[in-house]
Amino acid sequence: MCGIVGLFLKKDDLRPKLGDMLTDMLITMTDRGPDSAGIAIYGDDSDGLKVTVQSDTPESDFAGLDTALGEALGAPVAMKAIDTHAVLTLPEGSRDAAIAFLEARGLRIMGLGEAMEIYKEIGLPKDVAARFNLRAMGGSHGIGHTRMATESAVTTLGAHPFSTDEDQCLVHNGSLSNHNQMRRILTEKGFAPRTENDTEVAACYISSRIAEGANLGEALEGTLDDLDGFFTFVMGTKTGFGVVRDPIACKPAVMAETDDYVAFGSEYRAFANLPGIEAARVWEPEPATVYFWER
Amino acid sequence: MTATATAATTDVQTLDMSEMELREVNAALQGAPTTNYTQFEIRNPRGSHAVAVGLDAEIEVTVKGSTGYYCAGMNKLATVHVEGSVGPGAAENMMSGTVIVEGDASQYAGATGHGGLLVIKGNASSRCGISMKGIDIVVHGNIGHMSAFMAQKGNLVVLGDAGDALGDSLYEARLFVRGAVKSLGADCIEKEMRPEHLEILKDLLEKAGADAKPEEFKRYGSARKLYNFNIDHADEY
Lengths: 295, 237
Known about the structure:
The complex is a heterodimer of chains A (about 300) and B (about 240).
Chain A: E1 3-9, H1 18-28, E2 36-42, E3 50-54, H2 58-62, H3 65-73, E4 78-82, E5 85-89, H4 95-104, E6 108-113, E7 116-122, H5 125-132, E8 141-147, E9 162-165, E10 168-176, H6 179-189, H7 198-211, H8 216-226, E11 229-236, E12 240-245, E13 254-257, E14 261-265, E15 281-283, E16 291-294
Helix pairs in contact in A: 6-7, 7-8
Chain B: E1 9-16, H1 22-30, E2 37-43, E3 60-64, E4 79-82, E5 98-101, E6 117-120, E7 133-139, E8 153-158, E9 174-177, E10 188-191, H2 195-207, E11 218-222
Parallel strand pairs in B: 1-2, 2-3, 3-4, 4-5, 5-6, 6-7, 7-8, 8-9
Antiparallel strand pairs in B: 9-11, 10-11
């Protein structure tokens, strides 16, 4: 099954409440995905590129990590550690060196971006939300996922969202049937997925298309031609988010829009707590049709 | 109702889902034959699944808001009026009675229904009336792709447009569409509108409170070419 939620704010005054609203939406989708949960949140632009890393032993791995990385890069690094995740703000031009350093220490790279931070773990959505204090997070837009695993194991790295390029993330409800073939094609192109998960293949595919010059809409259009299987995808970028469903469209999707926000949910009940939902325009995205919102 | 039964009350019993569990709400509705209530109002459904399912008495239920999956499923005799939109599988496998949706319906509304009337005042998405077996469905707006797939019996009336592959592998259900049909499914063809069809349409449009004239519709039905195995097509399977 899996559940997807997404919220894109049109006005700045709701930004401090983004995490709170998204957390309610995420927990409501627990029935659709109790295995694991994750959220990508787009906050204010930081002073540089942020990298979100994960460790199963954060006490030892994160102790002094900022100092050690700063020494290796020759410039100070800011660190925000929350439970099993840490967000490090890198000095300019140090991306590749920083990733090499962090991976050499056995840390898992969850995502990179100027605005995006990713938090995901196995467990019930309410527990995952509490561990990371998602409710306290602000931002312009965010995407969340509750997972019921089908194509790969229940692990932290198998949880959604998947980020395969800076400020890009993808969540998926469905299953892909040509992901092994696509994995080979993408690996040859230099966009090798790191896990056995089918959704990560789709994320790599979209990232590869954007790297080749496609805009978000064109990259999502491409999934309809090149990916085989069932999907409702929600994709986040630095400036917005996009939605596409496969032509059969059996994986549910509903959207709501007011003057204040655009919301996505696998089910209407994810919207029940949103302000002004009674008067919102609510509709179901058409099959094989790309939608996107950008600020 | 027997002669000794107490006269039914005209009071409306309110069932508030912000205070009651779904099972309590449905149990109250399903227990209606043993109570005096004939009218119910469900408040705060907040997109819940399986609201007002399995009803089996001539009661009237108004749902004040939008629901999730399978609203009014397996309905028998009851009238369910949803003042909002419904999720997938609304009025699935309905036997009799009436279900009216003021808003939109998600996929497979009225699926496998044996009887009764389903009215959707907004749009219905994909697979509306899939495998319908005698239900009448009137959609005031549009319907999505693969609607009336393998439909066996009953009438599907659409005031707006129909999506791709309407009536694929259809049996004997009648499909009436006023707007455009994006494409017809395998073995579904346009058919002559005869006087008896105009009568059926007139009656259904009236019952559904639809502002449309029977003459504005086209009728679609089965070409009946898929009924039997055709040996000439053996290599296509």
